[in-house]
Structures are given as structure tokens and as C-alpha cells.
Design a protein that fits this description.
The chain is an alpha/beta fold and about 210 residues long. It has one domain: Ribonuclease Z/Hydroxyacylglutathione hydrolase-like (Metallo-beta-lactamase, Chain A, 4-Layer Sandwich), CATH 3.60.15. The protein contains six helices and 14 strands. α1 links the parallel β4 and β5. The chain is globular, with a radius of gyration of 16 Å. Bound molecules: zinc ion. Zinc ion binds next to loops.
Length: about 210
Amino acid sequence: MNVQDGIEYVDETSPAHIYVLDDGGEITLIDAGLPNEAETVLAYLARTGRKPEQVKRIVLTHRHGDHAGAMPALVRATGATVYAHADEAAALAGQEGAPARIEPLADGDVVPVFEGLRAIGVPGHTTGHLCFYLPERKVLFTGDALINRGSLTGPVAQYTADLSRAHGSLREKIADLDVETLCVAHGDVIPTGVAKQLREVIAGLS
Ligand SMILES: [Zn+2]
């Protein structure tokens, strides 16, 4: 599914979207889906005329299995380098077949995709949860910090380690960003004009 020029997500993964950033043929994936979804990702790449070796990076928002499950299999198939917050690394390294090295990302780090994909620390859902932001395109990839299943909301309480911290992180780190396009992991992408809605939803979180 095309979001905008160079930004897509893999059709047919569930429950979480896997984003495909294609920067002149060099591909970065944001998140990796369930353990059994590597084949779905590889089939999507083949169908869209790409080779596995074009995937240079897999950037993870957090450790949960619906976001990181297929990471080991995708690394084996592509040779990609994995990036995640240091607080997620131990859990990620514990996955069967995980690569020996996971590149640590901290708040403010920039991954070299397009004009620079900025990691934003948004702890609470997990301690090392990251969102990713393209400031010139005004695109925010939310991971599980915000979801849009029927309506835009904060993280699902049941799966969130520290809900009040998660809400505080959204107020502190996300509310003032200039965002036009919201790429959630769960639910529908909001392709344009999300700024006001985003501010209102975050302001309404207790
Ligand atoms: Zn999660």
C-alpha cells in the first residue's frame, strides 16, 4: 500500500503494519511483523520488483512480537542491520536466531533515510519505545504509542507497561511536532492533515 512517494506498507500483515521506506532503491523497514510474516514481507518485495538484498536496515519501534517477531528471519534473508533502543536490545537478542549485534538508537539519533529519520524516545508502552519522524516530510511513524483502530487514541492499556508514562511521553515528545501524515502500526494511516487531531487526542489523555 502506497502512503506517499517512497513510503509504503506491506499489504496483508496483521495486526501490525510494516513500513517500507525506499530511498532510491535502498530499503529500510520500520518494524518486522509477527514471527511467521517474513514470507509475507519477502513476497511483497518480490511483487513490487525488489530484491531482498536491497533491504539495508530494519528499524524497530519496540520489542513486542507483532513488531519484531520476523526480525531474525528477515535479517537472514536480507542481511539488513537492525536498529532499536538499547532498552529493547536484551529482549530482542533473546529471540531465536536474532543477530549478534543490534545497533543502539537513543532519542534524537538520526538514521540515514531520506532527509534523516529521527528516533524519538517515547517510553511507557515499553521502556525503550521509539517513534520515528521525518521532519521535512512531516511524517510520524508511531509504533504502539498511538493507534488508529476506528479512532485515534493512545496506546492500549492492557499491553502497555506504564500508561501514565506513555501519555506523559506523548505530551512531552510528540504533541509539539509538526506532523502532517500519521503512520500508525495498528489501524488506518492518516495520510494528510493530522496535526490538529493529533494535538487534541494527546491533550485529552489523562
Ligand atoms: Zn506493542
